[in-house]
Specification:
mainly alpha; 6 helices; 0% strand
Length: 164
């Protein structure tokens, strides 16, 4: 990997993991926080998912996955990660629906279970998904020509991404 792709991968991973590692705390807040504090945290979580994580996924699908599929000579080699992206999008939509219905009232037991299920499912999936993505980036590290690595790093820039 050229320094630019390596740096991009590291900075993106650190930025994403910082926010992802907050998800269990958010899930625990569901049972303990005031409605206003919970709503604020769910708003932050939703903003991260829609403004940072999903644009990151779209950039990976557009830039990295086709190159990896070319390397593996199989257009379906990235299918599991693409399916996980679908689950992440679906879970983000579920979280948005729950947020809309919360308002300023105390969360019901059923809503609490639903919110916690979505949050902890996202946490587990994202931790494994990002670790797998890192393995694929390591493959690019060993195989991509320097010009290709720089082009991939540039293509991964998206709204919400940190500056390397």
């Amino acid at each position: 990997m050229t320094a630019s792709l390596e740096t991009m991968a590291h900075v993106h991973s650190e930025h994403l993991l910082h926010e992802i590692d907050r998800l269990p705390e958010t899930g625990d807040m569901v049972a303990t926080a005031s409605p206003a504090d919970l709503r604020a945290r769910l708003d932050e979580t939703h903003a991260f998912l829609t403004e940072v994580l999903i644009p990151h996924m779209e950039a990976a699908e557009r830039a990295l996955y086709p190159e990896l599929e070319r390397m593996f000579q199989n257009v379906h080699s990235m299918a599991p990660l693409r399916r996980e992206h679908g689950v992440i999008r679906q879970s983000t939509a579920e979280l948005a629906k729950v947020r809309e219905h919360l308002g300023d009232r105390k969360i019901s037991v059923g809503e609490s279970i639903a919110v916690r299920r979505v949050i902890f499912r996202l946490y587990a999936l994202l931790k494994v998904h990002l670790a797998e993505e890192q393995l694929y980036l390591d493959i690019l590290d060993r195989r991509a020509a320097p010009e290709m690595a720089e082009a991939l790093a540039a293509a991964m820039a998206h709204p919400g991404s940190p500056e390397a």
